[in-house]
UniProtKB/TrEMBL annotation:
Name of protein: Protein Z-dependent protease inhibitor-like
SMART domains: SERPIN
Lineage, uppermost ranks: Eukaryota, Metazoa, Chordata, Craniata, Vertebrata
Assigned GO CC terms: extracellular space
Matches recorded under Pfam families: Serpin (PF00079)
Domain Serpin residues, every copy: 39-392
InterPro entries recorded: PZI_serpin_dom, Serpin_dom, Serpin_fam, Serpin_sf, Serpin_sf_1, Serpin_sf_2
Organism: Cottoperca gobio (Frogmouth)
Entry-linked Gene3D superfamilies: Alpha-1-antitrypsin, domain 1 (2.30.39.10), Antithrombin, subunit I, domain 2 (3.30.497.10)
């Protein structure tokens, strides 16, 4: 689709944007700050790789807020700043996140989001019962000590846990562990998208996807004609398509114009920009072609977090005394692996068709070049994950 067609579509949009359901002002403030951190973290990760990217940013927020709850003094203050939470009362954050997380869990059940957070100090460190209870009840995670002196057994324990928590979707979350590890954060998430309305598998056919001007791959391209929410950002020259999912979540597909690099667009992605795109969405009739793909990405985030000014928690003077034991424990590494499957799957017994006949010609949006994807909960605009698809034929 050319920029002129996208602009024409925006001019012909039929309905006003869908509004978000109000939530408490304090929870909404945390929600907005989480979106800002999600965008900052995504930019930091994507700038370091030339491959596909996928981060379950909401899962990572849970892990880092659990870590924040263990921190005191300058360590806590720096974490608040690094997580875009400066000015908020850290004592109230667990309750606020629990409220937000409960809303997300209720709204994403049909998306089959499985996620897990593990706080893992070295064997010999006694996690306090109060901190363990907080991690379990407020952040849906767990905390226990682990013997890193036998690295392979420790890795097997973590990988088995991640596999169980994600329904076998996330495997080999970690490989080589440092036997000198003091504290490790392990996070995993798996998304099975079920679009509503879904794409009809009988209409899927192989089409060209232009990875760049020198590289073209053939990929299964799904198809559906329907009424979709769409926006166009003239400043960045991108189309923004909303694909609703069963249960209340949705995916934004951010497609740059043909002469615009996706890397140039992602440099401008902020929490505020994401919220602006959501507000600008309006409904129009549209033919959509979207590649079927599977993303499976793993990251060690120590160096990435330090570029976001989260440094002291990794140093010898870190204060994580709220976790239990004596001051002196420091974070060694944080691992994250997330998986997303995007296909024609549907739980809707009425799903099928994929073609609605309109009385007038219907424009087509073909996602056949690199794009960004953002999943969020529609009622609260809570950002769940951010990714980049440069080549849908690769995980």
């Amino acid at each position: 689709m050319t920029p002129s067609v996208l602009l024409l579509l925006v001019g012909l949009l039929l309905l006003s944007p869908a509004s978000s359901q109000p939530i408490g002002s304090s929870v909404q403030d945390l929600n907005n700050r989480n979106a800002d951190f999600a965008a900052r973290l995504y930019r930091a990760v994507s700038s370091r790789t030339d491959d596909n990217v996928f981060l379950s940013t909401f899962t990572l927020s849970a892990a880092l807020l659990a870590l924040l709850s263990a921190a005191n003094g300058p360590t806590r203050e720096q974490l608040l700043q690094g997580l875009s939470l400066t000015g908020l009362d850290s004592q109230n954050l667990p309750d606020l996140f629990q409220s937000l997380s409960t809303t997300v869990q209720q709204g994403s059940l049909d998306m089959n989001l499985r996620e897990a957070v593990y706080i893992l100090p070295a064997l010999g460190f006694q996690v306090s019962s109060a901190y363990l209870d907080l991690v379990q009840t407020k952040f849906r995670g767990n905390a226990q000590s682990l013997a890193y002196t036998v690295p392979q057994e420790a890795a097997n324990t973590i990988n088995l846990w991640a596999q169980e928590k994600t329904g076998d979707s996330v495997k080999e979350l970690v490989t080589d562990l440092d036997p000198q590890t003091q504290l490790l954060l392990a996070t995993a998430a798996a998304y099975q998208t079920r679009f509503s309305p879904s794409f009809n598998a009988s209409l899927t056919q192989d089409e060209r996807f232009y990875v760049d001007k020198y590289h073209v791959v053939m990929v299964p391209m799904m198809f559906r004609t329907d009424r979709y929410f769409l926006a166009y950002d003239r400043s960045l020259k991108v189309g923004v398509l909303k694909l609703p999912m069963a249960g209340g979540a949705a995916m934004l597909v951010v497609l740059p114009d043909e002469n615009v690099a996706v890397t140039a667009v992602e440099e401008e992605v902020t929490g505020e920009k994401i919220q602006a795109w959501i507000r600008q969405l309006k409904k129009t009739k549209l033919e959509v072609q979207l590649p079927r793909f599977l993303l499976e990405r793993s990251y060690s985030l120590r160096d990435i977090l330090q570029t976001l000014n989260i440094t002291q928690v990794f140093q010898d003077d870190a204060d994580l005394s709220n976790m239990g034991g004596d001051q002196g424990l420091k974070l060694t590494q944080i691992y994250h692996k997330s998986v997303m499957s995007v296909d024609e799957s549907s739980d809707d017994v009425t799903a099928g068709g994929g073609v609605i006949v309109f009385s007038t010609p219907t424009p087509r949006l073909t996602v056949n070049r690199p794009f960004l994807l953002i999943t969020y909960l529609q009622t609260t605009s809570t950002v769940l994950s951010i990714g980049r698809v440069l080549d849908p034929s690769r995980k």
